[in-house]
Structures are given as structure tokens and as C-alpha cells.
Amino acid sequence: MARGDMAAATIPLREALRLQPELIEARESLGLALYDMGDVDAAIEELRAVRRQRADASLAQRTLAAALIARRDWSAARAELEDLLRTQPDLIQAHYSLGLARYALGDLNGAIDSYREVLARSPNHADARYNLALTLKLAHRDAEATPEFLAAARAGHAVAQYFVGAAYASGTGVGRDLTQAVLWWSRADDQDVAQAGAALAELRQIALGRSRRPSADRPAVEQAFRDYRAALWDEFSDLARDPGDETIGAALLRRGRGREAVGVLIREASALSEPAQGLLESLYTHGIAGQVPAHDTKILEYFKAAAAEGQVRPRISLARFYAGGLGVPQDTARAVSLLKATPHEDAQRLLQELLASSPAPVRP
Fold this sequence. Notes:
20 helices
């Protein structure tokens, strides 16, 4: 067991129990080994036998509760955890697991109490903070939920960051602030929270005048993206901003920090910075020796996603990539299709150039 070879450990443990069925230490170890192997049902059987022999077998009881949760036997898990906490009230993980069990059983107030017990003993427990916030929200206690979401978000909890963005977007529990919504959704999106990416995409549609939402929202959303881009400078206190700097990415490139610049430029471009979009197209096309290779896949993925949203500049850039076979198979028909669907004079000018230079009719 010390080497982590649980399957091998079960063989002498079972032999010990064959020779001496009441050897509780062997049965407890067998239950732990089975649980670590993922044989939950067999582990529960052995650990319950330990509990019948010795009511104060704390480790067996904790593992039994974990196994019951893994089997989603929430009622039995709750009973074991409540019994365990009566004698050992400072077990943080037991309080947390009890919160999960109570939540699953629909006991929202009980779950709230459990998560608060965790936080009283471990204030930096981000998962407990997030679960507390979510449970408060489900209990329609939004004014209490938002500060908890915010605390979890500041600790780096990705889904909490999404909910904080939603709170700022709607003014639930905090003053409505679209800039803060963009900031928190961007942080969650950086951690691949799909809801945050969708929320930002919807805001971009509003800013581009492509949404069904009232047009009165558009100036506020445009300003929120501008404010967010300006606030990004605060993350780079080591950069002296020159008067001509339109993007943080440009400042980083001048200092030879190309790989870092790519990620920042994508963040700026995702907040609708046309200068950042232009720099990304140049980086993708030409690269920078020793810093950024041409045809960087992260940049290409950005342009594909932005073009799919209908953004004009990314559509034109992506059409150039396909027309020239830049890091992608050359596909003039796809380039033409992108440009035909983009009602912008630059797109139509490039479209005419492609059609005129093509040796054969192009059928997108």
C-alpha cells in the first residue's frame, strides 16, 4: 500500500482475514485499498464491516462516507458524515462533503450551514466559497451570494468568475458595471468557461450592431470594451507607455516579448481592438524572428472564432490566409465565400482582386 500498489496489497490482506476474520486493521486496510482501486461497492462492504466492529474507526468512517458519495448514496453519506462530525467537529473535508450531500438531497439551508462551517475553519477554501455562493443563489439569496462569488472569483475559481461577470452585467447584488462584466468574463474565458465565452460573444454582437437587443445598449457596451482595454495596462506596471502605443501587445513586441505579446493581443482583439487585430494579422503572416513563428496556431484559432462571429476585419484577414495558403491549405473558394458574406468596402475590394486574378471561375 505504501508503494501505491493497491491491487497487490489486497492479496495478503484477504489472506490475513481468511486466517483471522476479526483482524480489524486488515479489514480497514482492505477497504481503503479497494476504494483507491475504484471498487466502490466492495470498499463499502468492507468499511461497513469495520464500523460494525469498531464504532470509533474514524478513518474507515471518512472513507466510507467518500465511497457513498462516489456511489451517490447521498442519504447514507449524510448519516455517516453527521455522525462523524458529532465527535470530530473540526474535520474540514467532512463538513465540505456534508455540504455536497445536503445539496444533493435538496437541503439548501443545511448545505449553506456546512459550507459556512468549512469557511470558518479555512477561509481560503475556494470551492467551498463557490458552492456557498451557488447554493445561496439557488435559495434566491442573491444579495448574500454575490460577495461569496466575488471572493471565490478573486481566488481564481473560474466558474465563480463567470457568475461575478453575470452579476455585474445585470446589477444583481452589485451596481451594474459592464466594464467589470467584461473583465470577469474575460478571466473566466481564459480558463475555458464556455458560458463566459458565449456572454462575451453576445456583447460583441451588441457592440457590432448585430444583436436583437435594443440599440440603446450599444454605446454602453462599446465603452465597456474600451475601458477594459485601457484597464489591461494596469497588469503591466513594468511597461512604460509611449504616446503612440495603441496596444499593450505592440509595447511588448518592441521589448522582445513576442510570445507574451501574442496572448495579450488576442485579449485586446477579443475586446474589439482593430489595431490589435491588425498586429495579429501581421504576426501570423510574417512572424518575428526569434520571437513568434509565422502561421501561429493560436492566432489562427482567434481569427477563425472572430470570423465565425461575423467580425469584419477577422473575416478579411482569414480570407487572405485561405487565398494565399498561409498556414492553411490554399482555398480560394472559401476566401471568396468569406468576402461575399462581408458587406464592407475592403472586403469587396479584395473579393474583386481574387476574382480577377483567378484563372478559372471560382464557385464558393
